[in-house]
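Protocol step 4 of 6: structure prediction from sequence.
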Amino acid sequence: MLRGIIIAVLTIGIAGTAFWGYQEHKEKNAILQNAENNYQRAFHDLSYQIDLLHDKIGTSLAMNSRSSLSPALAEVWKITSEAHNDVGQLPLTLVPFNKTEEFLANIGNFTYKAAVRDLDKEPLTDQEYQTLQKLYKESANIQNDLREVQHTVLENNLTWMDVELALASGKENADNTIIDGFQTVEKTVESYSETEFGPGMVSMQKDDDQFKKLKGKTITQKEAVSMAKKWAAPRGKKVETKVTENGKGSHFGFYSISMEDRGTRTESSMDITKKGGYPIWFIASREVKKQNISLNDASNKAIAFLKENRFTNLDLFESAQYDNTGVFTFIGSQDGTRIYPDSIRVKVALDNGDIIGFSAEDYLKSHHSREIPEARMSAKEAKTKVNPNVKIMEEGRSIILNDLNQEVLCHEFTGVLGDDTYRIFINAESGAEEKVQKLENAEPIYEDAV
């Protein structure tokens, strides 16, 4: 009897294990298939966008009037943006593809600047037409290279998951048709690096020193660990740390530090700049228990925290609560003007007020003392550029980044249209409508803070 019961239990256990293993295998295959489908879609979309890019540049060459040429150039800019997005969705993080991305960015930048100017008063120069002709030929070569890869992928039923596995295992140097194909594209684009985009071109190349505005001495690894411990354990608990320095490919110097507080079972990580010892980002992983402090109290803790860590000239801009955490956005402020590029986000636990999340990368890259220009257009004039159906509730001045990643002075209007609230930025020099943002859950506060 006992033996029979044991056999029955073992049989059920084996069957259960087999069923669980089957389910795991089935779910894993479903995840892999979904990833493969996304990669295939992004790749074929990229090929399609490059085809369109070549055709649209060719069409632009045949146009002359501003009414038709400006929209055509704007369409080229839009296509390069979409192609960028498709490249970002491919598993190519270990395959050098930066020249191709830079080439797409430069085309987009060149066509955008041409599209937004008055081509009747300032038509394309001979040099700019020559540039378009070169881009037309160069995009054709890239188009052909991608078509070769696309043909091989379809003919041989190749999968992108094989590429990702090859990259992850470090075997990307082996014979892999997809990787080899994209390296061919990269070599083709590299030969076009001397293309002249004209004197008005703003380079989209990555800055070799993204944090060049930072001040202060270079800190040691020991000093970085000491700083990190204060973040991870503000109450002085013992923390175990691991630290690594940035790799050779990085554009700036920093330390990456992971920490574990076994007493509170909190794990946290952060990056700190070598120059000046500024925290770039911080995140603490722990359970946030029942709310004990208000969102207003949490905002005061965030403000005090920023002051303590040398972040100045900031206003509390937006505040939101998610479950038992408060998330606060601060933006720069100078001479009554909001500086949106100087932004910082702070996440506060509402059980005890600890800082459990922080991001200051935008602030560290852009913050400096600016000479804010005088507005050529008054706020009253700028208001006439806003949709008349929008009921304006607030107005002010601000500096934002435009589509070319340039800082521009704007008149800012917050208004209501129907049941929705919008933030509208009108260029204070040209009167152009730079950006329109629909406000979601977070409430704008506009409060002096740090």
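Step 5 (inspection) to follow. The chain has a mean pLDDT of 77.
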